[in-house]
Amino acid sequence: MSVLVTGGAGYIGSHVTRDLLERGERVVVVDLNPEQPAALTEYPALRYVRGDIGDGAMLDRIFADEGIDAVIHFAALKSVAESMRDPGAYFANNVG
């Protein structure tokens, strides 16, 4: 199975990514972090893409090239105060 993990360079995302890789899954991580986490560099079944999940063209290419079967979304915005000021941005990123 090929899994897309958004936010896969973060704390929770990187742990889930590692668990998927250790189960033998092929994983594509999309994250804004410019560097792949050191804990994930040893896995040849990982493709790391630095990018914004709001980039539809990039996601279309990933889905077409990688044959994605499942998506796990960890690339969420998380500031309560900011979400009250701009709920639309939070909805678009975290749900849309």
Layout: helices, strands, pairs:
Layout (H helix, E strand, L loop, with lengths): L1 E5 L4 H12 L3 E6 L14 E5 L5 H11 L3 E4 L6 H6 L1 H8 L2
Parallel strand pairs: 1-2, 1-4, 2-3
Describe the protein in words.
The chain is of the alpha/beta class and 96 residues long. Helices cover 39% and strands 21% of the residues. It contains four helices and four strands, in the order βαββαβαα. It has a four-stranded parallel beta sheet, with helices on one face. The two termini are 24 Å apart.
Radius of gyration: 14 Å
Q: How much strand?
A: 15-25%
Number of contiguous helices: 4
State the share of residues found in helices, binned by percent. 25-40%
Overall pLDDT level: 91
**H/E element order:** EHEEHEHH
Please report the total strand number as a whole number. Answer: 4
Sheet with the most strands, sense and barrel status: 4 strands, parallel
Instruction: Give the N-to-C terminal Cα separation.
Output: 24 Å
The geometry reads as globular
Secondary-structure-derived class = alpha/beta
Could you give the order of strands across the largest sheet? Answer: 3-2-1-4
Low-confidence runs: none
Defining traits:
96 residues; alpha/beta; four-stranded parallel β-sheet; 4 helices
Quick structural gist:
By secondary structure, the protein is α/β, with parallel strands linked by helices. Helix content is 39%, strand content 21%.
